[in-house]
Amino acid sequence: MASKKPNKLAFLSMPAPASYVAGLGRGASGFTTRSDIGPAREGPSAETIAEAQARRGEEPEIDSEQFQDPDNEYGLFAGTTYEADDEEADKIYEAVDHNMDARRRARREAHENEELSKYRAERPKIQQQFVDLKRGLAVITDEEWESIPDVGNLTRKKRRKDERSFVVSDSILVGDRAQTEYESSLDIKQQQDGFITPADAGAMTNFVEIGQARDKILSLKLDQISGTSTVSGSATSVDPKGYLTSLNSVVLKSEAEIGDIKRARMLFDSLVKSNPKHAPGWIAAACLEEHAGRMVAARKLIKAGCEHCPKSEDVWLEAARLHSQDDAKVILANAVQHVGQSVKVWLAAADLEQDVQAKKRVLRKALENIPNSVRLWKETVNLETSPADARILLSRAVEVIPLSVELWLALARLETPDRAKAVLNKARKSVPTSHEIWIAAGRLLEQVATADPQKSSEARNKELEMVDRTIEAGVRELRRHQVLLTREQWLKEAERCESEGSPRTCEAIVKATISMEVEEEDRLDTWMGDAESAESRGKVGTARAILAYALKVFPDKRHLWRRAADLEKAYGDQQSLDAILSQAVHYCPQAEVLWLMAAKEKWLAGDVTAAREVLEKAFIANPESEQIWLAAVKLEAENGELGVARELLVRARTVADTERIWMKSAVFERQQGQYAAALETVSSALSKFPKFAKLYMIQGQIHQLQKNHAAARASYAAGIKACPKDVTLWVLASRLEELDGKSIKARALLEKARLLNPANEALWAESVGVEERAGGAAQAKTMLARGMQECPTSGLLWSMAIWAEPRPARKSRSVDALKKSKDNALVTCTVARLFWAERKIEKARDWFVRSVATEQDKDIGDHWGWWLKFERQHGTPEHVAEVTKRCVAAEPHHGPVWQSIAKDDKNIGKGTKEILELVADALQ
Which has the closest alpha carbon to 439: 496, 365, 520? Predict the structure, then answer.
């Protein structure tokens, strides 16, 4: 009976709708299976897609491979002809690609190198990590090496022992087999003697022989290790003494260096193959292998280079260098067969010889091949120990090479003076354009003139004049042959003659050539500059000759005589200095400074009588010169002739009648304790010179010495009224009031002084000092700040400001002071004292040197005192002596402490050295 219920699964046998997507209701977006490919619908054609894109305004996509041959995708045009146009196009594209790559190459390579170095830094090799430790083994001693503990088992676990197996030798196997065998017959001895055991075949062991054999074997092994034993004629290469040391010389190459060597090897290999006649390529390739440590390959390459480039001397020399000495001799012997005209090859062959006779044979063989080589002749002559043989060789050399000046001069040196003159005459005729020959002739004449000490001065001077004439003739001949040396070249030749011990030849060259190429109006300045430059180079003789010639041309120039006198004072002796000064006062009698220098040098030499004679002559030439009068007074006073000095002052006041002479007269009376006479002299002087401030100072100081403050105050007041711009008068008046206990009046005086003399650092410094001595530190600091605002570059105020700061802030304050004061000497000395306080000895010494660097700074005596005090505490006796010597040479006159001590009546007549020691003791 058939069922009437509808079949719910009937749709499974029905075809699916056209737009049906399985699982779309569950969110599926559709998929395609293998079974769907067959009945799938065909998509739109290419024409339909192109029309749709055209309607939307889109450009159709062009397939770059649409015209590609499907059968031969990469050889489509292989059968076409490669023409010149194609080659040109390829070159253009290659050039474009190369330029585009070159733009970014440097940046790309830098980036790659940076990345590589960064990677190497992050992940170094184990070998590189232990390089420093390996090199450190070079300094380990034997005791340290023996004290290194053996590595033990720190894991506390039982380890399985290594079971080693060895191959058993045949002798052991045969011997073991023989132990189990039985002999079935007796030998002849057994048949005759039976089994009787001989007496010497017992089981007795000779331990002495065993010990000797063991010692012998041990010594053989030690000899092998130490490299002293020889095996089949060759020594071992093990050196235990130098083994650890040789680790230092082991250069571990990195991978980058190895890669560079490989690339360079490929390049050089390509170079020598493409151009085998290029000698530098072979040399470079061999040097590369030598650098890489492959000496065998290097020698093989340089041998091939010698075969391909037999005419290149460099290749042969490099081959000789790379081989041992014996092999190098063979190589150079082959080299001279190919490059027999090479001087370098012959010299290298001579250098390889150890025996002098062998060297001579090689060099003489070389001269047979190259007779015109000056270098070979010189080397051959240098090997000769006998002057006669050398003379013979040089005679032959100048015959072969007559144009060589060196050979002519060498021959002249070996000849006697008479024959040397003949040689130089021949040389002059052969080489008329050589100035060296003329100079050598002048030096020869000078040598002959000065050789005999018994010769009279007249004869010697006559022969020395020949030197001047010879050099003058040489200069004329050289001009005639169109040889024009500049004056700078001639001066260099003069300096060379001076350094080689020919001062008269140097002087002759200067006389003959110093006027060349110089305008008449520029002669003096040019010659002064030449003399200074020669002196700066240490050529004193040349500078002396230049100044002597300049003085002949300009005998009336005072500063020129002064310059010559300073040169002789620095480098000459007393006799030469006296000669210069005598000529100077003769040609310039009105030059007071030259008279004073002459008298002073006589006085310093201990000849007081000669000094008086010089001053007497100076009086005749300059009767009204106050400097000469005062020098005469000083000479007499310091030599104890007080009465003569007083009479000279009286005469000077009558003849010269200058304010300085009156002042010195008053000072002289005060030093002798004649206060009444001194006050009378001052009063007379003030009536004549009321505007001279120092007279008021002397008058006030004398009243202070007599404890008459009222009279001293009146003297200072009169001086201030007459000379309101003199700062020292204001300071002395202020100190008088301060000494009298009237600090308020001292402040008032200094305030008035600052109004009349604005921006004066000395007045501001004195004001600060008044406040400090009165106990007002805050007022002193305020006063110092005001002074620095008005005098921002004052070294004195900046120095006081540094010391006013607390200790930690002084260093930064000193930096500001150096910048603002432009390295003022006072600030520099203060900085040196700061380093001294910090125990920085060398820095302090350097800054003390800087504080007395210039001529103006050397005049400040307080700096020398501080430096001497420093060296007394931290220096050696040599340092102290050096400071004293430099101070005496500088002759300082200024400085607050220096002036107060030097002008003290108790220190009259003391020298610079004594004053310096007193100043160093007084400084605090």
Answer: 496
pLDDT over threshold 50, residue 200: no
Least confident among 63-77, 578-592, 765-779, 898-912:
63-77
Other residues' Cβ atoms within 10 Å of the Cβ of residue 846 = 13
What is the Cα–Cα distance from 261 to 215, expressed in whole angstroms?
A: 50
Which residues on adjacent β-strands are paired with residue 860?
A: 894
- Residue 755 identity: L
Residue type, position 616, single letter? E
Q: How many contiguous H segments (helices) and E segments (strands) does the chain have?
A: 50, 2
For residues 909 and 898, what is the distance between their CA atoms, to the nearest angstrom? 15
Distance CA 470, CA 502 (A): 14
Q: Kindly report which listed range (61-65, 367-371, 638-642, 884-888) carries the lowest average pLDDT score.
A: 61-65
Alpha carbons 420 and 441: distance in angstroms, whole number: 9
Residue 660, amino acid: R
Tell me how crowded residue 746 is: count the other CB atoms within 10 A of its CB: 25
Of 400, 545, 564, the C-alpha closest to 468 is 545
Report helix, strand or coil for 482: coil
User: How many residues does this entry show for the chain?
Assistant: 924
Question: Quick one: tokens of 780?
Answer: 């002193």
Q: Report the chain's mean pLDDT, rounded to a whole number.
A: 81
* 469 phi, psi to nearest 5 deg: -65, -35
CB atoms within 10 A of CB 41: 5
Q: What are phi and psi of 369, to 5 degrees?
A: -85, -35
The reported pLDDT for the residue numbered 841 is 92
| Separation CA 902–CA 916 (nearest Å) | 9
Q: Are 702 and 679 in contact (CB under 8 A)?
A: yes
pLDDT digits (tens, 9 = 90+) for 536-585: 988 888 999 999 899 898 888 888 998 998 888 888 888 888 888 888 88
Using the structure block, give the residue that is written with the tokens 């000494």: 739
As a whole number of angstroms, the distance between CA 621 and CA 585 comes to 10
- Token pair of 318 as six digits: 């490099």
* CA–CA gap between residue 226 and residue 142 (Å, rounded): 16
For strands 230-231 and 234-235, give the pairing.
antiparallel
Q: How far is CA 532 from the centre of its chain?
A: 24
Mean pLDDT comparison of 409-413, 491-495, 669-673, highest-scoring range:
491-495
Q: What is the pLDDT of residue 342?
A: 84
Percent of the chain exceeding pLDDT 70 equals 83
The residue among 289, 292, 340, 343 whose CA lies nearest residue 319 is 289
| Token duo for residue 242 | 């130098």
